[in-house]
Design brief:
Structural class: mainly beta
Oligomer: single chain
Low-confidence stretches: 1-90, 487-492
Radius of gyration: 25 Å
CATH superfamily of one domain: YVTN repeat-like/Quinoprotein amine dehydrogenase
Shape: globular
Strand content: 35-45%
CATH topology of one domain: Methylamine Dehydrogenase, Chain H
Number of helices: 3
CATH class of one domain: Mainly Beta
Length: 492
């Protein structure tokens, strides 16, 4: 258990009961909740509006002498009331509606489009379709019969289109995000492997890696636009590299696009071994010219942790297994070398530049998040997790304003300032602060960092990161409503 946004230590217990029962048995239900929560728990008994988003009622402290005096006398009655009511597991926030009124949607992967108007989700592990949500209204817009190509989101935000695979077919299909209509298909030649790296600057082209070749295809109408020799070996024609950020879950890979999608940075390790040399290459997507970066110091075992481009695309932060390097593309010169200082593992992954490009957010081993001045290399902010060196998930908004961490053990989101790494607050996704077996909660952060979409087993919704409040629950009409578990909760 840990403090909520108001600083108190709180446990929550959901009691799913009809309004009449809840009103008539208010004292019994409040007392019953006190039996199964820790001291200083708050118990809310009230009603919810039809959408399940507003709680009508106030929580009360369940620690008075009256409660303590009634413990033995009311234990049996309270237990019966809990059983009849269908009480779920503890840990729910006091203003959470009953399970049937919460968002019943589910997803294993999600992203916002670049403009923050649409939220796209993959509902199942198999991932044979994509759902599109209106962020302003919370409505489910459409469901598309599509599969992400290599788990890669390729969204043309301006035209509201998605490039993905279609089950049981070949090639890449272009879909309309408003209607789900299949617009066109980029063909794959029979027997020739190909993998997509992402959409190009205008949103109407895709970069493909093939054995020995780089290709840019126009999407609508489909046509080959450019072709050039690939710098990658034939047997590893798509960027694969040794390294990464092993201790923290994140969304980085061996390739990184500039925000204007005109340049692609890749890392590849020809011989896949921890002691092998990795190569770092910049690809100009407009011309398909490639340039290998010559690093300021030679070290054959250097591996990639993560890339990040500045907002204007003129600087590249290259995080490695030992340091963070800043490359100025205009001058071709390297800036300060920032050495990692974590005792267990000194790697530094470049995660995002701030909006003005003056600072870069870096992720170190375990619980170390740092912000560095790009010009001087000085550390201007650092965050260490409250729960110590435990694993968590890291996400940062597109503009670098907000960092959103998911803590496994406590089911809680922590919000940090991207410019300083300072703690700003918490977001409780219906259920939090209850120790349990770690389960990753899939989530996505909006481009401005003001929203987080979370698929929790106790309800799926979009939350406000500043106020820790519900924006909208995500209701999927094809799925059954959530139901409470028929068992009595143990002490948390």
């Amino acid at each position: 258990m840990a403090p909520n946004a108001g600083g108190r230590r709180i446990n929550y217990l959901e009691i799913d009961a009809p309004d009449v029962l809840a009103e008539e048995m208010r004292p019994v239900l409040q007392y019953a909740a006190s039996l199964f929560t820790r001291p200083r728990a708050r118990v809310g008994v009230g009603r919810y509006d039809g959408g399940g988003s507003k709680f009508i009622g106030e929580p009360v402290d369940a620690t008075s002498r009256t409660w303590m005096g009634l413990r033995r006398l009311g234990a049996l009655v309270a237990a019966v009331a809990l059983f009849v009511s269908g009480c779920g597991a503890g840990g729910d926030r006091w203003d959470a509606p009953p399970l049937p009124l919460r968002g019943n949607a589910s997803f294993v992967s999600a992203t916002f489009d670049d403009e923050g108007k649409l939220l796209l989700t993959v509902p199942g592990i198999i991932g044979n379709h994509v759902q599109v949500w209106n962020v302003k209204t919370g409505d489910l817009v459409t469901t598309i019969d599509a599969v992400l190509a290599d788990r890669l989101w390729m969204i043309d935000s301006r035209r509201q289109r998605l490039l993905a695979r279609k089950p049981s077919t070949s090639g890449l299909h272009l879909f309309d995000l408003r209607t789900g209509r299949d617009i066109s298909t980029v063909p794959y030649e029979a027997g020739e492997p190909a993998r997509a790296a992402g959409l190009t600057a205008d949103g109407n082209g895709v970069l493909l890696f093939k054995p020995g070749w780089l290709e840019v295809w126009q999407l609508d109408p489909p046509a080959l636009m450019r072709r050039a020799e690939s710098p990658l070996p034939l047997e590893h024609y798509f960027p694969h590299c040794v390294g990464g950020i092993p201790a923290t879950w994140n969304d980085k890979s061996c390739l990184e696009w500039s925000l204007d999608r005109r340049t692609l940075a890749i890392a590849y390790t020809p011989v896949f071994s921890p002691m092998s040399e990795s190569h770092f290459v910049l690809i100009d997507v407009a011309t398909l010219d490639t340039r290998e970066l010559l690093l300021p110091t030679e070290r054959q075992s250097r591996t990639l942790a993560a890339f990040a481009f500045s907002p204007d695309g003129q600087k590249l932060a290259l995080g490695t297994d030992q340091e963070l390097l800043i490359y100025d593309r205009a001058s071709g010169r390297w800036g300060p070398t920032i050495l990692g200082d974590h005792q267990r593992n000194p790697y530094l992954g470049a995660m995002r530049f701030t909006a003005d490009g003056s600072r870069v957010i870096a992720l170190g081993d375990l619980d170390q998040i740092s912000v560095y001045d790009v010009a001087t290399g000085e550390r201007v902010g650092q965050h260490r997790s409250y729960d110590g060196s435990l694993e968590y998930v890291f996400r940062v908004s597109r503009d670098g304003r907000r960092i959103v961490l998911y803590h496994f053990l406590d089911d809680i989101f922590e919000v940090l300032d991207g410019g300083t790494a300072a703690h700003l607050g918490w977001v409780c996704p219906y259920f939090c602060w209850r120790k349990h077996n770690p389960i990753e909660v899939p989530y996505a952060v909006s481009p401005d960092g003001e929203s987080v979409a979370a698929a929790h087993r106790r309800g799926t919704a979009v939350w406000n990161t500043a106020s820790n409040s519900l924006k909208f629950a995500m209701h999927d009409p094809r799925r059954p409503r959530l139901r409470p578990a028929w068992r009595l909760p143990g002490r948390g």
